[in-house]
Amino acid sequence: MTYDDQNIFAKILRGQIPCETLFEDEHVLAFMDIMPQVDGHCLVIPKRPSVGLLDADPSVFGPLFTAVQRLSKAVTQAFDADGVTVMQFNGSAAGQTVFHLHVHVMPRKAGIPPRPHTGKMEAPEIIEKNAALIRAALG
Ligand code: AMP
Description:
By secondary structure, the chain is of the alpha+beta class. It has one domain (8-138): HIT-like (HIT family, subunit A, 2-Layer Sandwich), CATH 3.30.428. It contains 3 helices and 5 strands. It has helices at residues 8-13, 61-78, 124-138, and strands at 21-24, 28-32, 42-46, 83-87, 103-108. It has a 5-stranded antiparallel sheet with strand order 1-2-3-5-4. A hairpin with a 3-residue loop joins strand 1 (21-24) and strand 2. Helix 2 packs across helix 3. The structure holds adenosine monophosphate (AMP). Residues 8, 19, 33-35, 89, 95-98, 118 line the site of adenosine monophosphate.
């Protein structure tokens, strides 16, 4: 599969559609997932385009997983989480729905299962409130 620069995350990176940004630098953008499987579900994407893990330039992984770790610590603090689920899908057979490499970061509470993948759109005010908690924890 070749990279399609009309995918939704490419549009977010170009500022053509909005997102609830948590942080960004020259390499990555972290933002809230609009159909969160748990409260505080967020995503990290490299700015350099690739469909997924298999076609990515390995140089993206350092900055990407540094950001995943930073975000995992922040969501743990923000949601008093017992654990963090980090997920990454490659290909529609594996559950990928947006074809720009991304990593899911989900704070988890013991005994609370995640909601379905790409389920219900969250109310914007809830997303904003949860983003504010994460930003405060990011410092
Ligand atoms: P995946 O199935 O791994 O490709 O995940 C794509 C994720 O992107 C899902 O969790 C969606 O809820 C999320 N998503 C789709 N569109 C947007 C958007 N415009 N802003 C934020 N998250 C999105």
